[in-house]
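step 3/5: co-fold with zinc ion
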Amino acid sequence: MTINKVHHLNCGTFASLLVGTLVSHVLLCETSDGLVLVDSGIGILDIESPRRLGRAALLLRPRLRREETAAYQVAALGYSTSDIRHIVATHLDYDHIGGASDFPAARVHTTAVELRTARTQRSLPDRFRYRRSHVEALTHIETYDGVGEKLLGFTGAHPINGVRDMWLVPLPGHTAGHAGVALRVGGRRWLFHAGDAFFDHHAIGPTDQPRTLRIRKVSAMEGLLAAEHNKVERNHARLRDLAHTKSASVSVFCSHDPVMLGELQRCAQGSLPGC
Ligand SMILES: [Zn+2]
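step 4/5: write tokens
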């Protein structure tokens, strides 16, 4: 499966009281052998039954718009839900995996640590963030563990079974089994979906930029949601290095930043110079 084209979708808009509008950046990848989603956003079942999202949704306050679901957008592009063969998940929080239920034929890929943590829900924060209805709906699932391989300056990357040119790159911090997803498009250009390893483009920008009120609020929210706080800053530094590396053409972005989503959508449409 070579990745030929990538659509940058917003599969969930949020009206956070703390930091304002957020999005749910999902990738729809056209490959030589079917479609692959990176994350799945909010699902149709979540919209029909918002209680499915639990109390964690009170923090980010998702707007429940059917037209933003991956299933709706896949259909609008002329595909059927059964065309989605794989969903590669950065992690299993409700806003990243809720849409997986809309693609019952897809195989879901995540780290072994993430699946174990979401299933066992040993701690109070885990019970708050993971939704049993989402996790139990994952029946075709493949997990990744062990040493992995070197990729883009990271160690421990796992090639996705059945999807050429796509890797899970463990980045624990936001959750214990959180991972970024690296993909090579057209055999040359790199995209690195960092999930919730950061929340705003400023986090991987210059270290000497002024800390505005918004940056401080985003940082506070990130701390609130992190399972392992001590790893968050280190992830920022690693991703900052990757974003500014000279050795590869790589776009680094996160799930919830509307600015990054807009840039990559314009880039994919060819309306942004330098893409
Ligand atoms: Zn998230």
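step 5/5: annotate
The chain has a mean pLDDT of 94.
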